[in-house]
Structure formats: structure tokens, C-alpha cells
Records
---
Amino acid sequence: MKTSRLFILIAMAATATALHAANVVNNVDPRTNSWFTTYSGQYARIYTSDVNKTNGDSVTTWSTGSTSQVLPVYCGVQEIYSSSNWVYIRSSGLANHVMGPWYLDANHTQAFPNYPTNEHVLYKIPRNPTVPSTKTRNGGGAIGYFVDGVAVFNSWDAYYYTNGADTQGGTTGGYWNRDAYINEGASFDPNNAHQAGGQHHYHANPPALRYFLGDHVDFNTVTKAYPEDTNAPTKHSPILGWVSDGWPVYGPYGYSVSNDASSGIRRMISGYVLRNGQYGSQNLTAVGRADLPQWAVRLYGVASNVMSGPAVSTSYPLGRYMEDNDYLGDLGVSMGTNTYDLDEYNGRWCVTPEFPNGTYAYFVAISSNGTPVFPYNIGRGYYGDPAGSAVTSITESVVTNFLGGPESIPLLNSPSMKSGTVTLTWSATEGGTYLVESTTNFTSWTTNSASVSAVPTGAAYTNNPTDNFRFYRVAQTALASYDPVGTGGGTVSGGTYPVPGGSVSRGNGTNITLSITLSAGGSNPPSLPPANAPITSVTLGTLTATGSSDATAGTVLANFSIPSNVTTNTQNVVVTFGIPPGQSQAPTFTTTGGFTINP
């Protein structure tokens, strides 16, 4: 009986990923290691309809006419950097779970006009948060990021009441500000998310993220929904995100006693109630919206009667505005385990698994069945100083904490063996093609497969059972075109670039697509070839395209791999078509200096 022995060596090609490996550090700070990057090498996906959701049919490119994602994009956080004072994340802003579908109405008859798009965001968060005595009101747009790289939005939907009607606009709104969950909830997908333009974001409890983090949420494989687990919670919620003031956002479950990790687990109760007469609050249905609640008076710095809101009615129901809620502390109700747990900013000082010595932390507010309750993620004001923000670049020395997606390093899983057959499996980047080679002497290598594809973030190769005493190595040899998040800490492969006018930095194996606009007046003949005319070759300087197409007349798409030793500066792009019937010369179109390769 023949015995098969297999020694495995994973040898990566010299890519930008390998060059960065020495810079990646293992940091124990939750601000750098709590980010959910497991699926950073996976394309973002959406469901475009309920039918597609039911059937499990998702797509990696999409368009509504107003927002489009024409190339696949890797989901979530792609890069993490840190200094002594800041943590920087680079993210596409798109979740790892399948997003969508989105509708404008509860019956799902009107499609939501926006789909998510690559946000290309670089966001910094303070590493040493401070607590100012004067609090800042949060406004529209991202006020932080969840650990899956999706934007944190507050509870405002960008409309406020003024001059007898609800009006959209402003940075932080007015005095009677509409509640996003109440007014826009019909447009949320099953994960309480939708888009502002193409910016995907959560206003409230993100159940899919919590499911992937193991936070007391189930997944229904039929409905594709994420219901709250009906059993009693047994562990503290994980960190779900970070706000721009540097304090964490946890899921809804914390320790029963804020400073005692042995006190048991309970759902954190919001300190807000509707102003319907309960707990001594004003009954706005009876007295009208004449006065702001005291939390708003403090935060806005105005008198309570600065401006009246509309009378409670069918058109303006109670709960429509954030200011329809009172904070129990202002009604003389003390915080405690039998009343409520969270302050007016929707957080508390407490110990957590990540901060055993204590931290201030926001908690997601939900009811017992998982329904979001006001103020959802954080209150209308920041507890800390919101010094974090989106930035265009990193202007200080930083440590590289994580590089994912196209820059990630494949990792070998334990091989499996059965009846003399050995199967190699490794982590991979979606869109990647991998080469498997073997040797018995480390002098000569045999190609076993040159075309192993990632599916979607893993790859596998099964050996020939007659092989014996072999070492194997695996290298990524190609990566399909994709929409890059940013240049970050190294060369970014992928993307579609225009000709004329485009440019890219060279790199070992950088794969790009050129979208070449042909100009009438080629050397022979002068007119443009029709769509799908046969293409003989496309060259970029000394490089030849690995593939090309011209489904649209006048536009040629050509794929190139840009090596590290290629000549830099402006390059001529030449497209040569097949010789048309009855003619003797091939139509050739040259764009002089049409594309630039940077060092």
C-alpha cells in the first residue's frame, strides 16, 4: 500500500501585500482590533428586490440611474492605521452581509431611488477621548463608523419643522427634528439601513452585524431576516462601532451593575419616554408642542418656548420628532436596575470585557423583541468631544494595523487527507486567480494548476493521489478589476481608468482596465469600427492587453497587468482591429500620451 506524504509551503508572489507584511502589528487596543475585517476580501452584494432576496440572488454591480456601482467593490474596512492620538480606517462603507432590498413604502410597491456605492472614506477617530463640559449636537451624515465599516448616523432624518411645514436642510437641524426611524423606517432594509445618496448607513440597531459578531441575534435562512434571540442573554454585547468622539458603541446587552462584571447580563434600557403624560411628562397630545424637553433646552442653548411645533394630529403624530421624547432624569426618575440604565446621550460609565477598568460607552437601544427604541444608537448630543472626521490623507507617522481585501495575505488552513488524496485550502481574495506548484527538490517546480479561483474568499486544490513526497506553494497571479477604496498604504490593484487622461501607479501585478475612447480618424479607415468588431491587439506603451472587448461602438475595454519595472510617464495607447472584409489593412487607433504610469 502506497503512503502519501505531503509537505506544504505557501510562497506568495512579491506583491504589495507581502511588502507590507513586516509593518503589520498585533495591537491589543480595542480601538484598533475591534474592527470586523473577516470578510474584507469579499465583494459587497445587494438584493435588488424581495423576489431576489427570497431566491438568494444577489449582485455585485448595480445601478438605479441615480446611483451606480459599475465595478465590484470589496466590503467594509480595508485598512487600519494608528498613531498615539488617532486611529484611521479606510472603508468602502458597504456591509459584508447582503444589503437590501429597499422600498419607500411598507407594502414594497415603490422602489427606493438610491442604491449604495463605494464611499472611498478615510476616517479618523480619537484614541484618547475627552469629556467637555459643553456638549455638541450631532448632525446629518456620518458621526462615526460601525466595526463593519458602515457609517453611524444619528436619529435625525435631515428634516425639521419650521414655518408651518417640515423642511429639509441644515447641518444640525432646527428645534423640532424628525425621527429617522419613525419617518423613514419603511425605506430601511432588514438590517435597518438605507442610503443618503449612495452613502449606506445605519440609523438604529444593526441586527446583521450583531449576528456576525455573535450578539444574541439569529438568522432566518428562509426570510433572510435577523430576529432577536428569544432566549435570555448570557454574555455582554460586543463593540459595534466607534463614534467620532472616540467612545465605543456596544450592542444592547451589558452588565446589570455598571461597575461589576459578575452582576449578570441585562438589556440596557433607554432613559427616554414619549411625552404622553407618563412619569409626569407633558402630554403633548393634550397641551400641544409648545415647549421643548429639557434635554433639548440644554443642548440647543435656548428657552423651552423658543418655537412651537405642530399640534399632534394624524399628519404630525406623537413620536414624529425627536423632541417628542423626554429624558427620565429630567422628570425626577432615578437611574437604576429597575428603571433605566442609559443617560441622555444613550450611554453610561461602566466596565466591559474590552475595558475591565471602565470606560464611557454608548449602547444600542432596543425593546425586548429587538425593535429599535429612541434614541437608537446615541443621543442627540455627543458625550465627548467629536474631534474625529473624514480626512483626505494621513499627515503623520502611523503604524499599519491591518491591510485587507486586495492587500491581504493568503493564509493556509489545515490540509485534509482522505484515501491518499490531500486537499489544500487557503484564504483568498474574491476575484483572485491562484497558481499551485509543487516540487520534490526545491530546484525545479511543476505547475499543478494555473487557474484556481477564489470562491468567494477561499480557494482549494486537490492533489493527484499518485503524487508522493511533494512540497507545494501557492501564489496569487491575477485579480479581476474592481473599484478601489483608496491608495492607503500601498499600491491598489484594479479599477477602470479612462483613456485619454487616466493614470495609475505601477506595481508588481497591478491589474487594471482601460476604458479607451476612440476618436474618428484612425490611420485606416478613418471611421469608427462597429460594436463587437474583432480586436487584434491593444497596447499600452510596451505592454500588451491580456483581454479586450468593444461591446459599445467607439469604446474599447482592455485589461493590463502593470509590472513594477515598466517604464513610467505618459504612454501611447494603440488599438488594432482585425482586417475588415475587402480591405488590406487593419484599422489602427492611436492615442498619443493617452495614459500615464506613475512611479
---
Amino acid sequence: MKEKKLHEKEAVVEGIKEKLGKAQSVVLLDYRGLTVEEVTALRDQMRQAGIEYRVLKNTMMTRAADELGIKGAEELFKGPTAAAFGYKDPAAPAKILVDFIKKAKKTEIKGGMLEGKVVGTDQIKYLAELPSKEVLVAKLLGTLNAPITNFVGVLAGVPRALVCALSAIQEQKQA
């Protein structure tokens, strides 16, 4: 019986290791004080954004982090802990949780992990304030496009100036 439980726990730790290894970011939340309706709404919001939200045992999370060589994670796994695993967009879990906490005013972010490194609450909040990837790409493309647009404007100015000069000469000769 003990051996069966040990194998089950090892399987859970392996699953957590896989999630931690695959996730671009993990945000940890102290979920005390949340109602069932609030947690259900939060889970739905997470699911729609492609984020996995799980409540896992702290000992299992600690063991998985240790086996992956993630230093300093033990402090995050104290008390009731829920984890939001962001696989596609590293900022998405932070944005959703920070927004949720502003509305609920009942809980707090404990910290998290970003690409295998432990980060504090301040860094998670900063991550949540970043614009989305699409907005950043659009800004970059706009910045890259601006010099080309200006150059085309300058090149178009030369024939325009020539046409204006020829038009002025024509008007002068007609007068």
C-alpha cells in the first residue's frame, strides 16, 4: 500500500515537473478567502486564455522545483497555493491574476517563476503591466517603418518640387 502511494506521488511530481518545464511563466496565488463562484469564474477566465490553473500540494511543488534545480522556490510554497501555468504568453497569467485581485480584493500573489527562475510579487505585477505581444510587435514594426516612410516622403518631395517649379515657370510665361 505504501509503495502504491509512493508511486502515485512520484507520478504527481513528474507531472508538475513537466508543467514547470513546459510553462513560460508560473504565477502562484494564495487563494484563501475566495468563494467557489470566484474560483470558478477565475478558472473559466484562465481556460479561455489557454492557462492551466491548478491547486497542487506544496510538498509536491517543492520537490518538483528542487528536481528541476529551481532555487528559492521553497518560500513560495507555504500556505494555500494555486498555480497558473502560462504556456503561450508569459504575461497572460500575471495579467489575469492581477486584474482579478484588483476586483476581488481578497487574496494576493505570492510570486512566481519566469522561464525557470523565481521572481517576486513586484516582478509579476510589472509583467502584468506590459503590453501584449501583438501590441509590442505592432510598435516595433511602426518604429522600423517610420524611417522608410520618411525616406519615401523625401524622395516624393523632389518630383513634387520640380512640378511646382515647372508650374510656376509656365504661369510666369503665360503672364
---
Amino acid sequence: MYNFSYLKKSAIILVLFSLICLFAFKAEHTPYTEYYQSSLSRFSTEQEKLLLNIKDADLTTPAGIGAVKTGIKQARLKLKAIDFWLRYLEPVAYKKINGPLPVEWENEVFEKFEKPYKRLGAGLSLAELYLNNKGSDLQKDSLLQLIRISQNALNTYMADSITSQLNTPNHFFLCNRLYLLNLAAIYTTGFECTENGNIIPELKAMMLDVNKIYTAFNQSFPGEKLTDDYLELYTRAMSFVNGQPDDFEQFDHFTFLKDYVNPLFAINQRLIRQYNVISVSFNDYTLNNSCNSIFDKSLYTPQNAMGIYSLLEDTAMLSEIRAVGKLLFYDPLLSGNNSRTCVSCHKSKEYFTDTAMATSFNFDHVHYLPRNTPSLVNVVYNHLLMLDGRHTSLQNQAKDVMTNPAEMGGKKEDIMDKILSCKEYKTAFRKFLKYTPEEKEITFDHIASAITYYYKDFSGFYSPFDDAMNQNRPLSADARKGFNLFMSKAQCATCHYVPQFNGVPPPYIGSEFEVIGVPADISYSKLSEDSGRYKINTAYETMNAFRTGNLRNLEYTKPYMHNGVFTTLDQVIDFYDAGGGTGKKLSVPNQSLSTDSLKLTATEKKELLSFLHSLNEAVIFENPPGSLPVSSRKELNSRKVGGDY
């Protein structure tokens, strides 16, 4: 039976929300703003129905649980109709409406200015997850609370600070850009949809609803509307999606992205420039308006490789800085014993990693470092650096490595003295000093920034997969099938996001960490004892968590995982296929990776591997310098290019 006092209370809430929409809505009343208002109201109504559904359901029976799941499904369809706005206009509130995780430690770009903080998720995805995982322990109050939090968060979208943006067309093209990026990276992967059977039906409904948003927008802003070429291509994209099976494992992600989403992105970028669109959102912090492809390396810029030379635009001078940076990369003067260099661990022709060892030598040349050497190729596409995310800038990372007693064992003052004892270095840095007017003397930042400016160039190369997306070049059938597996059954894309296939999802303002249960040895005798992110941000969720790595050039950057435990990609795929550490019978209570077997066939593993190989980039490496600058201290002139070990 219905609880009539609850129904009365719910009705009052619904009326109040409608009144808010009617009287407090500050945007101009155009077809576009009215559609926004009515769409939010429809979602609110569906959430009210869901609350009543939960209240009335007997959660001890399959029928009761099924009825609530049906209610969640209907509410999700109404949510997807407004996802276009919600996810962009207020992303913090969005995670209370459809958060994928119960607890999330935020580490977006703002960690460069403040510590990570705990954020609790709520809403539809978590409600569905709760239903799926709790079994007989289901608590109705907990389920209701997840939806009530979502209801309260929805009120945020009626605030003046949000609705006032609807009076101009600027926000629309930025909302649309994020929508297109999410079409490429998350909407078809199950990233925040726990029922695989609903992924493609939700996509079909969402694309149709977004088309209605397009119509309302064009009616309200005829001078800055979506152009016919965009709308025609979007119509074809909807037809393509509607012709696809509802099974997301059978969905042709490759064709959808290559023939529809990426070209739509290019048109939207053109319109952003044509209409001089202005952003007021941190969503756009790293995105580049001049980029015309999701797979262009200029799409987003998380790291400033120029460091202290950021204001410099003289290409000739920048070339000189790069040349000095290359010398420093190979120079043992950066180490405490004048025998170790950057290239000791980041070997240039091994994709700036160390493929010979699970972990490289410690500075003492006896022991080994605790973690595998990550490649410097594409490192610029991470917001947080090192496997535990301890650094927010390339320059700080470089300085830390030089002065770390276990790595290069140098001291800042000693390194500076040795570098400036070389006339070639001293002359160059005095010249560079003119272009950093805030500095009165040569600093450690001048050295670190020259090094990072040198190796950033190796992040600008492309792979056959990129060429297929950007230039319509052919890609093997196995690689295409492998990509479709990557985006669906293999579940790789829920952590490794397009286009870099690292842990930076749209809108590319944060680096993600995962707990996957990496073993200490290949026999799976125990879990790796490295606590990872926990050392930087102590929390239950961060124990054994590591920054999600970049999958480009994997064929050439073995061994794999933070401890180098796996020596082949076949071993890595088998590990994920088994359900990570938990699937391998290790105790990983906070594992974020799905613990279920993926049930990949031998053929599917082969196809997945083919796709991963298609991410190998045509990196052009350089030979080491022939010699190093001469020092006024004779004992330093016997040092070797690249060091001794």
C-alpha cells in the first residue's frame, strides 16, 4: 500500500519544484530555455515516481527489485535527455545525480592549487549498483537517500549562475563539444551504466533528445545556429546508431567514432571559432579551440613543458633551449656521483623507459628502485605525474628525480655549481635569463625546464589508429575488431579513455587512479606491497591505487605494471580477463576493477592485442650527443655521455 503522508509530501516537493521553474527561472523565455526548463521538470517528475516506487517495493523479492530497476531505467532515460547540459554546466552536482563511484577523491587540475578532497557520489548509477550488489542486505532507506540527494542536486541547475548562461549561445557549443567527446569516450562503454543491455538503448534515446535540443537552440539563436552540414551529419549518425544492435558488444564503435563523432567534433570546433565562443567554465581549462580532431595531439594540454620559459615565443631561442636540454638529459653532472643521467632509466631508443629490467638500478648500483620506469613519451598528457601522482608539473618531477637519494642522488646547490662550471652551459643560461625577466639569476628551474622542453617533443607522434581516424587510412580488420572489444566486452575504455588511452577522461582536467590488484610475482603468491597513491593521499580508496597509464607504444615499453611484474602483453590481458587480483584469488577489498572474468576468447585476445599494436607511434628518436660541455673542474671532464649505469 502507498504511504499517503509520503505521497502528500512528494506532491508538495513536485509543486515547489514546478514553481521554482516557473518563477525563479531567470533566463529569457525562448524555445531553447523553455525546453531546458521542461526537460529538467520531466526528469524531476520521473525521480518522484522512482521514490514512490522504491517506497512501495518489496526489496526482498525479485519482483520488487525488478520494479525498482524499471523505475531507474525510466529515470535514466529522462536524465540522458538533459545530460547534454547537466554534465557541462555543473559537473560537481552531476556526480550527485549520476556519480559512478560511492566515494571519489577528486584530483582534477585544481590539485595544482589545493589538496585532493573526498566527494561522495549519489544518484541513478549508484542506486542501480546498490541493487545489483547488496542482495539480501538491501536497505530501503539507503536506496531512497541516493535518489533524494540526486533530487536536491538537480535544484542547482535552476540557480541564476547556471540559467543566465542560457541567454547567450556561448555555453551551447561548449556543452556540445563535451557531449561529442563523451560520445567518443564514455557513452558507449558502460562507464556509468551498470546494465550493459541499457547502454545502446540509452545512447539511441539520448541522441534523439539532443536533436530536439538542437532544434530548440536554432529557433532561439538563428544568427549563431548549428549549420546544415552539422545537422545533416548528425541525422546520419542517428540513423547509423539506430541501425546498430542493442548489444553494446556488437556495436561498431570504430565506425561510429571515425565516420560520425570525429567529423561532428571538427564542425563544432569550427563554429566555436566562427562565433567567437567564450567560456566561463573550468571544463574548458585544457581544451584547444583550434584543434579539429579528437585524435589531434593538440586536443588538450595538461602539462606546460616550457616551464620557466613559458613566455618565450622566439623559435630560434627555443631551439637553443631544447639543444641544451638534450645535453643535460645525457649529462651525469645532474647526479651526485657524476655517473648517472636521465637516460640511465629513460633510455631514448627504448621509448624513454627501461625495457631490460622490471625496475631500474637504485643510485647505489646495488639495489633496485621499487617501481618500473614509466615512458616519457606522452607524459605531457597527464595532469598528475609519477605512478602515485605526487607531482603536478614536469619541472617538479625532474627536480625530484635529480635530488632523490635513490635515483640520481644529487643536491641542488652541487648540481648548479657543476653545471655552471661548464662555459657552454653558463653562456647559454645567461642568454636564456634575458627571457625570464622575473629571475635575476640562473636557477634550478632554468635547468629543469630545459630538460622537460627537450623530451616533450617525443609526445607529438601518431599511430596507425590515429591515422585511420584523422586521415581515413586503412586499419586491419583485427585492429578494428580489437578496438570494438576495447570499448565494450573487454571493459578497457572505462579506465583508458579516448584519445590518449590513459586515465584522463573528458573534459581532460584530471588524472584517475585505479586499484587493480597487481601481484608481487607472476605466481600470484601475494599482492604487491606497494601502497601507491595511499602514500600521497591516505584513504581506504587509495590503498594500492596507481595512476592509470597510457596504452600507446605498449609493444615497446615492457615490462608492465608499477612493479614490472609482467613481461608480455599476453600476461597483462590474461590478468584483466581473470578479474584482476581478486579474480586471481588475492585479497583486494577495495579493488576498483571489475572482479568478474571478462570471458575473452583466444581470438578476441588476439584481436585486442592487434588494436593495442595499432597504438604504436612512429616516434623518431635522436642519437645521443657526441660530447658534453667541458668543465673548468678537470675531474668532471672524464664523465661519459649517458653516464655509467
